[in-house]
Each structure stands twice: as C-alpha cells, then as structure tokens.
Amino acid sequence: MNVKAFVKKYTMVIALVAVFILFGLLTHGRLFYPQNMSNLMLQNSYVLVLACGMLCCILTGGNIDLSVGSTVCLVGALAAQLMDKNGMNAYLVIFVCLMVGAVIGGWQGFWIGYVHIPPFICTLSGMFLFRGLGRVILASKTVPVKDKTFLNVFASYVQIPGLDDNKIKMSAIIVGIAIAVIVLLTVFTGRAKRARKGYAVGPLGPELLKKAIIAGLIVFYAWKLANYKGIPVMLIWVLAVVFIYAFITSKTALGRYFYAVGGNEKATKLSGIDTRKVYFLAYLSMSFLAGLSGLLMAARIASVNGDTGNAFEMDAIGSCFIGGASAYGGSGTVAGICIGAIFLGVINQGMSIIGLDNNWQYIVKGAVLLVAVIFDVVSNHKTGKA
Amino acid sequence: MADHILVMKNITKEFPGVKALDNVNLEVERGEIHALVGENGAGKSTLMNVLSGTYPYGSYTGDIIYNGEVCQFNTLKDSEKRGIVIIHQELALIPELSIGENMFLGNERKGTFGIDWDRTYHEARTHMDQVGLKDSEHTLIKDIGTGKQQLVEIAKALSKNVKLLILDEPTSSLNEEDSRMLLNLLLDFKKQGMTSIIISHKLNEIAYVADRITVLRDGATIDTIDNRGKEPVSEELIIRYMVGRELSDRFPKRVPNISDEKALEVKNWTVHHPVYTEKVVDDNVSFYVRKGEIVGFSGLQGAGRTELAMSIFGHSYGTGITGQLFINGKEAHLGNERKAIEAGLAYVTEDRKGNGLILPQTIAVNTTMARLDKVCSGGVIDTVKENLAAEEYREKLKTKTPSVQQAAGNLSGGNQQKVLLAKWMFADADVLILDEPTRGIDVGAKFEIYCIMNDLVAQGKSVIMISSEMPEILGMCDRVYVMNEGRIVAEMDIADASQEKIMAAILKSEKKEEEKQV
Asked: What ipTM goes with this model?
C-alpha cells in the first residue's frame, strides 16, 4: 500500500492522532492524566450510544433523528421521578424506561416507515413533543437521582475486593491485557480459518502491526484507568452497545437492509424486502438507545432537569458524519462513527482543560465538522448524487 | 475535397491505467449525419466528451479542427458557444420545471429585471414548433413521455444555435414509433443544413439515417463506411467491424423443449394507475407461459407491459388489481414482493440503475439481495458462503470483473445486467420476467444474455421477455403476445410472426379504438 492509499483509508484515524497530539501539547500533557482519560470516555458515553442508533437512521438514506435529545430528557425525567417520588425499585425503573424508549421509537418508526412521514419533520415534532413531556414529568424542577442501586448499575467503578484495594486498580490492568491478547490472537485464528477454507491470506506483517497498535492502545488506556478509579461500569455499557451495533451492521441481514435501503430503496423493495419495516426498526432502535442514554445521563449527572440532553442529537449526527457516514445514506461503519465520536470528545475535553470559553468551543466544533466532511468528500471524490 | 465541419486528428486520451482513446481520427462533413458505433467501452462517449470540452484541452493529445481552425475547448460552454451541442443518453431535464424553463436553463433570457418570461416562452414555442412538439410550453417535464423529453432536448439545442448536434444513444429508451419520428426529424434538419453525430447501438436505425458510419473498437478507429449508396450498408459488416469477429448468428440456436404444463397463467388481469386510480393501465389481460418456454411481449412504449409484469410480481405496481393468477396450476395470491419471490417469480427490471442494483454495493451483496436467507443462519450472514455463491454466478454468466467485491456501479451496462440476472437466478426463480433485458448493451453482451436465457429454459424454467426490439422478440421467443393500450391485441406462434404482422396488430387495434371513440 502506497502512502496515498494509506492516507485515504485512514484519514480520520490520522486526524484523530493529530488532535490527540495537538491537545496533548496545548494542555501540556494534562489531557493524558488518568482522570482526564477516564472522563473522556464517560463524558462521551452518550454520544457513542446515540451515534450507533443514528448511524442506522443515516444509513437508510441520510435520514436523521432530531428527537433523541428530547427522548433522553423524557426518559431521564421518568427514571428520576419514579425513583425519587414513587420510590420504585431501580431494576424495574430501568426496565420501564427502556420500554418507554422503545415505545417512542415505535411511535416515530410507525409514522416514518408505514405512513411515509418525512423523518426530518416527524422527529422535529418529536423533539418538541418529548421535551415538553419530559418537562411536564419534572414539573419544571430539577429532580435528583439518589437511588444507590441505580447509580451502581450505571455510574460506579468495577471494584473487586483483593484486586482493587490499592491505588492501582489491578482489575483494569488484567482486563486490558486480556483483551489485548485476544486481539492479537484473532490475527492468527483468523488467518488459520481463512487458510483452512482455501481463501487468500494477506501478508502477516501489516495485519499484525495494525492489531499490535490496537492492542497497545488498549493496554495503555487500561493503565490510565487503573491509575484512576478502575473500569467505569458505564464503559461496559457503551462497549456492549458498540459491539452489538457493529455486529448488526456488518454481519446480519437486518444490517445489510439498512445499507440496501440507503443505496437504492426501489431495488430493495423489488428484492422482496419490506422497506417499511427497515425504517421502522431503524427509528425503533434509535429511540431505544436514546432511552438507554437517558438512564446513563441521569446516573452520571445524578439529577435530571428540563435541559438534560439538549442538542445531544447534534453531537450524534456530527459524530456520524465526521466518522465517514454518507449524508446520502448507504455507507458508514460503527468503527468509523466511534472514531468520529472520540474525535469530537477529544476536542471538547481538550478545550475544556485549556479553559477555552464555551462560546469558542461551539465555533471550533462547527469548523471541525465542516473541515472533516470537506476533507472526506474531496479525498474520496464523493460527489453525492449530483 | 469534401468540406469538413469537424476533423478530430490523432486524439489520444488516457485515464489512470487505461488508454481510452488511442490515435482516433474522425472526419465529419458539413451537412451529413455521421454515425459513431462501437461496443460499450469502445470510446465513443469519451471521444464526444473530448470534443465538447467536458475533458478540457490539455487532458488529451491531438487536434480538434472545427470549421477550419484548431479549437481548444476548456468547458462545455466553450464548445456550445461555437455551436457544438451534445445531448446525453441520460436526459438532463428537471422534472418539476416546465418545458420552457428547462429549455433556457443556464441560458436564461434576461430582461431589465430578472428573467423575461414572455420572451422565454415565445422562443420556446418557436423551437418546439421546429421539432414538432405540440404540447404547451408550460407543461411540466414530468408530465410528458421520454420521447417528447428527447424532443425538448433537441429544441433546447436549437435554442443554442446549434451547428453540430451530437446525440448519445437518443433512441435507447424510445419505442419504435418515437424512434422513427426522431430519426425523421434528424433527416429534416439535415435538409436544412445541420450536421449531426449520432451514437447508437441500433444498427437498423443507423443504416436508415446515417450518411457515413465510423466504427470504433477498443479506443481506436477501425474504419469509416459510406452509407450513401443505393443499398443500405449491411448490418453484418458493421457488426464485424465492431466486434472484430464474425457473428454468424445474432441469436443463439435452441432446440425447443416445451412441456404442456403451464408454469404461470394469468386470467382477466386488470390494473389501475396508482395515482389516477380511475385510469385502467391493463385491461382484462389473460396469458400463460409453459415450462421451458420463452414468451415475448411486444408492443409500443406505454402499452402497459412493464405495469403488467410489476403488478403480477407481488402487486409492486398499481392499485385496484383484479384477476386470477395461477402458478403451476394452483391459484396464488401474491400480495407483496416477498410472496412473489417465494412463489418462484422474478421480475428483472428494465431500469437496472434505478430499480435493479444497489450501485455502491458490491457484486456479492447485489447477488444475494433477493434471497439473503440462503446465505444466512439465524439472521447472521455467512460472508464466505455469500462470496462463494456470487463467485459461482460470476463464472456461470461470465461477468467481466476482477472480483465479486467490486462495486456494481463500476461495471459496464452489459455486466451490470448479468449481475442483475445472477441476483434473480440465485433467488431460484422458476418464472423469470425479463423487462428489456438487452437495453443499452452491446452486441457481444446481448448474445451472452440470449445464451443465458436459453440455458434457463433448457433447465425447464420459463422466461417472459418484454422487449421493444422486434428482431430480438422474433429471434428468441417461442410465442409472442402483442400488447397495445393495456390490452393483448394478438397472440402468435413465432413461426407465424413477423415484424409486419406485429405492427399490423398494433395499428389495427388503434384503428378500432378510434372508431369506438367516433
């Protein structure tokens, strides 16, 4: 692979490394302090979760969901009130709230998929509707989240007695090393499997190098976590969502249909695929994840108010487009949007550490979004549909 | 010495990795209709793009001498200023705008303040009269057929003071009647002194209309044939130049092996228009196809053939569908596309890019699209199995591609058609409805598609071929239905059928229709 092809393939990865280095220098290395590294993930947990759902919507043809921020607020408000006022059991609350997320998704998916209401308009209506409902539930107050079980499920750190009693949390290091070893092993098991089936096996060097870098980063990050409070439970939730969605989009028939509808809806329909159901499921999953995100936020902030989740949809949409999803649908990967989300997260975090004015943060974010997409369009000659 | 309006000398154009044009020479005389023919990928369109400035001066080598001077066109506008106008195969009209607005798009007639609409529509009327377009200049493009849209494009060219008109496959989406009208219009223009270059795959049309024919093959000029003699030039000669080999027979031989069993039978099928629900698109149509049989559907564009096929295929077109459908003698109700596929039906669309393939996706993805469950277990795709299946069909259909991981959009028209066929063969269809299966693909690929059809019926499957090209219907089918205005107006055994008889059946039915109205 020559340099040009390499740059083209890993544009966003290179850009991500560049912003890490840039903010590393600007913050005099404070960005890499264990606490900041740990927070980087936690503060972006909601973006990652929402971006996974948003990707499915965008794949179906550049359709976005504007209502997710409001859904986060509604579900968060419901969870807070049920526990604070009614004292409902935390596990029951989680179940109810996730179901409410799914019902909201079903509501929007029904109108979009089966009645062909344009997604932009339908979710714009949802944006007002659910924000309003959320504020009604909160009665315009800030409701605290104090339930121990609830906070434990979402916002605690993994604590294994005997391992994590010291300053350095051993559990994080052990898990990190274990995952790194598994990543490295997949290189060899994958090659063996392909060789057994008589498939072409590429050169070992580049593949091993790539996986070795990934493994190295995992160990590095685990080390940082170990030096802070250990593995955050929220990270496990986020990784679970990311892996499930990576699997759905790349390996299952349903995932294939998201791409197919975005690539050519008429051809997909004539191939006997129920395109209405594909839209329905995309928006169902989106609001379900918004519900989960609402729970994560409620636990992380430990309170919910009428502005919770404000403009979250924009972060999710931004991550998708920075991560290489096509604004016309039909292309984009979970790995890509994760890079997009972390990219945005690093910029946010970096600017906060420097102490840059909040207003300037908006300006930088807007510029970065545009530059990233311009770079992607120009380097890939994606001229869209014109 | 002849008066040449255009001489293209030693044109060479390279794309990364390919030499698209290699020392091509083209000489066009003033006032002639010059045809440019060649297989897909021979370089016809590239040559015309060089001429029109789409590929700017400097990106190719060689000279363009137009009206006696060497020209350096950098953009399309440069060449249009000199009177060279190109009309592309895919029409560049905006459906939601009127005919008049489209004609002056990018070339607006300006008054003191903004656009002078009176002048715009007045001039539009003048040019529309020149091409014999009787619709109102305020009619929206989406409300007129492809044939008339083509005329709008020509009127638009006239509004630009065209001296040299280039038409890229102007008749590929027109029926025989509209095509003939268009060709006659070109002949009229010729009398008035206009020069045209026409690119086409339809050799009978070229023999009819062209004065001289230049054949390109693999990016090089093979020869220029004079067609002004008394006898029209033989199509066989052109084909031989085009493919570089003798195609002794354009249609592969087949020994019919037709069973008595009817694979599909339709009785009293009536379909209404999806938007204008009172309009009957197909009226009381009954037909059948037997196992091992190729049945042709002939007729003019708009006869209701595509609509019939799609309404049968899981009601994917139309409303108010009534009638009975029998598959292998048993009545079936196919309410959606999935049910139709499960019943063994396949509809291979005439619009490969719009309705058939997902162009940005790989060949493998497209191949398994209609029956993804065959390579899935528990909703999870087995990509190894998928690739093997796609590979199998690639070999079977001789699709020219380096790998099944190529995006379908990168393939030529003929190879895209093969991928589309592979998709429906993979779906295990027993009755394949092929809608214009050879539209816009070259002679060699056509022959291969015909061979595939023969293979299919040899396996006992049934093929329904909708085609506007009569030689193809006559060359391939065992039986032919003729449709007009939503009704079947004739059914004939191929032994009794001829182009004249099919046309006669259509014209007779139209006469009856007129009498009824009187």
From this structure: 0.81
